[in-house]
Specification:
Blueprint (H helix, E strand, L loop, with lengths): L4 E6 L9 H18 L3 E4 L13 H10 L5 E4 L2 E2 L5 H14 L4 E6 L8 H11 L14 E6 L2 H10 L2 E5 L7 H16 L6 E8 L3 H19 L9 H6 L4 H11 L2 E4 L1 H15 L3 E5 L5 H14 L3 H12 L1
Helix pairs in contact: 1-11, 3-4, 5-6, 7-9, 10-11
């Protein structure tokens, strides 16, 4: 199998020493860096009412990221369709794709409301983005992705002929079966091969020790969230001082299975194995740290470990200088 491409899933994390507006600006900075490093696409997630995330309007953030980058694909990961009128979603992305033809992804999630009519909403949205749909009708329609962590979403994506991304960081098990279902349905619906991408939560650093410190911060945040304490991500300094409760340790143990962490060469080996196991040629990397500088460094090291073309050029320039 060929070397997997790398992309970014950005939840715009808010660290305990930062404000949401700083987190949003950090997302713009990270998108610029990701484009330079050679990442394939950059998605803005959607979350509401969480102090740990500033990503409440991904379509707005996507527009800003498109304006601050030049060629990388930009989109959402994803718009929570049960919350919105499909016609309005189609209009928003019709405008984005008209202004930035060939660069816009429309990732759709099924959370945020009743799921019983989700297939109908998704089919309506697909039709509206086709010929004779919304105005403006973009010269190159946005590429539609369905996001999910189960077989039902995978089958639906296959039936509708959309792209599919499996959320490994939500559900580390079940991805291979979901992709099997997706590909089986997709071939029947379109007659062409299916692709797909795996969304993985990753943190790496210049040393394994530093990576573990960042992982502990993330795991503490996630454990507290499970236990009803939704807060910004703790810094690694406050995490070091923290006295873990038994319940926190138990929840952290559960979430450790969905986190790939370590030195760059360790992370590279695990991610390459995950791509091969799931039969995908693209990994969408989600990294959460309290400090934006640690997050950007993680993506830089990952680009170097996977020898992304732009990262190789940057390394050569640095060495020559």
């Amino acid at each position: 199998m060929t070397k997997p491409r790398l992309s970014v899933l950005d939840q715009t994390p808010v660290g305990e020493d930062y404000t949401p507006d700083q987190a949003l600006r950090a997302s713009v900075d990270l998108a610029r860096a990701a484009e330079t490093l050679g990442y394939t696409r950059y998605w803005a997630a959607e979350h509401h009412g969480s102090p740990g995330f500033a990503s409440s309007a991904p379509e707005i953030l996507a527009g800003a990221l498109l304006a601050h980058t030049s060629h990388m694909r930009i989109g959402t990961g994803g718009v929570l369709l049960p919350r919105y009128d499909p016609a309005k979603v189609a209009e928003v992305f019709g405008v984005l794709a008209s202004l930035h033809p060939g660069r816009v992804d429309l990732g759709i999630g099924r959370a945020g409301g009743p799921a019983r009519d989700f297939p109908q909403r998704l089919a309506q949205l697909t039709a509206l983005l086709g010929e004779g749909g919304v105005v403006p009708h973009p010269p190159v329609p946005p590429q539609m992705w369905l996001l999910g962590a189960g077989r039902e979403s995978a089958r639906l994506a296959g039936l509708l002929g959309t792209e599919f991304a499996f959320g490994h960081f939500f559900s580390p098990a079940g991805g291979t079966e979901a992709f099997d279902d997706y590909r089986a349905q997709f071939r029947g619906a379109t007659g062409r091969p299916a692709g797909g991408a795996l969304a993985v939560r990753v943190v790496t650093a210049d040393s394994a020790g530093r990576a573990e410190e960042l992982a502990q911060s993330l795991l503490l945040w996630r454990a507290r969230k499970d236990l009803g304490q939704d807060a910004p991500l703790p810094s690694y300094e406050s995490t070091r001082r923290h006295r873990w409760t038994g319940a926190e340790l138990e929840r952290a143990k559960v979430h450790r299975t969905a986190l790939v962490s370590g030195a760059p060469e360790q992370v590279h080996a695990v991610l390459t194995g995950l791509a091969a196991t799931h039969g995908v040629d693209e990994l969408i990397v989600n990294t959460l740290t309290a400090d934006p500088a640690d997050r950007q460094r993680s993506y830089e090291l990952l680009a170097e470990a996977f020898a992304l073309p732009a990262a190789r050029r940057e390394a050569a320039v640095t060495a020559a200088g």
